[in-house]
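Protocol step 4 of 6: structure prediction from sequence.
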Amino acid sequence: MAGCGAEGDNQGLEYAPNMYHSVPYEPLSQIVDESAGEAAELFGANDDGHGEYYNSNPLNDHRMTMRTPPANSVRRNGFLPYRIPKDSLEAAATVQNPLTGDRQELISDGNVLYARFCNHCHGPKAEGNGSVGSPPASDPDGVPPFAGIANLKGAAYQNITEGHIFHVITHGKGLMGAHGSQISQEERWKIAMYVKELQK
């Protein structure tokens, strides 16, 4: 009877603690009672002498603790999510490249990224003659696997902006699929800078 008595913050005896306390970390719930849950020496949950449910940081004003991000989470790197819809190329063309710093160094990084993600279709000089858009070496007069890959040095593409290129890399266009999930925003801007350099 005494164990079942509950009042205020005391909910009485816990017969099944996992029904009361979530096993996953709950960011909006901080347990400040160092004795909450089984004692460490009995339960073997940790080596700090606290109960198994204690998860507060006494050194932080809000008692929150920075947690290691889950495996395979995507870093933000200070960039806000890119919200311009796929069919809004005119709006995308006005977006300015946010990268600052040594331009030549950024373009050099873009060169490496272009070779990794773009070269196989657009070719080393962005002329649309990569291995995917060219006839196989065994049949040089044959039909390329995917005809119609954009020659980014052609007259139709000379006036496109870095924002336009970034947008097409993000959402795709025509034959080109979206690469926003494979290439970070920073890397997309570097590639756009490198493509403009190739167009000179």
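Step 5 (inspection) to follow. The radius of gyration is 28 Å.
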